[in-house]
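Q: My collaborator sent me two sequences in one message, no labels, and asked for predicted structures for both. Can we handle them in order? The first one she listed is below.
A: Yes, handling them in the order given. First sequence, followed by its structure tokens:
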Amino acid sequence: MLTLHTAEASPEASVLVDGATIAALGTYEDLAAAHPDARVRRWPGILVPGLLNPYGLEILEGTYHPDPREADEFGTVPLGGERAREIFRADPSRLGASARRGIQRLLAHGTVAVAGELRARPVVDAVRRAGLGIARRPERLTPPVSFSPSPLILLPALAADGPARFAVFDVADRAGLVEQGAGTCVATVIGGRLVYRRV
């Protein structure tokens, strides 16, 4: 089934998705006229190729993302450094579940690819299952580790017949995205699937 994604502040950058692939790009009016049977998803803000988070290793292997049921023991905020290492040493099976929760947080920030040399098999498996791309890490990084790093790194432009992988942010334009950050994400699509939607 065809799905047409369009965002209020960037109707000229609408995307027609067929399965896991981008079938066409163009204005909302042109795509809707050419494909009247397509399901339409309307979003606030702008539609962009999605973000690369350069801190994949630190976020997914060096940070413990507590399960909400563990709030009494660990709180609700991700734990890094020695505290995360202690948790993983005490129970190595926590790494995979933590990585899956970390990936959900990345998706909620419009991340469609991560960088960093992932080493732990449970983390690599979780990244592959989620459909996140893996890219080379930029030579220079600006601390701190963040779900909304500065500067934000957009993936290359979307292309017809390319992978249906993009994000939508509730901002007026790309300058607004830079200013307000990745926490403005309202939707993330990977492999043509809506993997995150702000409720």
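Q: And the one she listed second?
A: Here it is, processed independently of the first:
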Amino acid sequence: MSHSDPARRLADALTSACLGLRRGVVAVVPASDAWARAFRGVHEALASTAPSEVLAIEHIGSTSVPGLEAKPILDIAIGVRPGTPSDALDGWLSGLGMLLRGDATDVRRDRMYGYELEPMIRLVNVHVLEYQSRGWQDYIGFRDHLRADPVDREAYGALKRRLADRDRLAYIRDKESFILPRR
């Protein structure tokens, strides 16, 4: 990319990538090759400025699985050194235009940020957690399982299509029985 500003490179990577969903809405769309290209651009923008606490940046979630329908939002896991304070990346990520969405909870094991080019239209969810932690391994394990298993990939896509008319929290909750045994 021609821009040296990492925030501009991040925005450029996401433009024309068939991404974006109003916060709180559930919509599942056909897979797009643009998602992998967008992740490569986002990865470049993040990796070129990442602080030393960052050990890995991975594309996770359904947009990381070729051929799988997905909500049109990139999910990215950023693995940090064990013991890194949860707010250690706030300045870096907010400087790139990320919005802090919340800390780890009993339900979610990561600190979460979102990226929007327009208010309330989410393009990226960033999940920050300890590299190689249980949560990290769950994200990577499920992604890798779906990439390798076409039967489960199709079954998961069918489940997501059936659940797409539910509210966001029900959609997330009702996918768990499929996800948990396959991590």
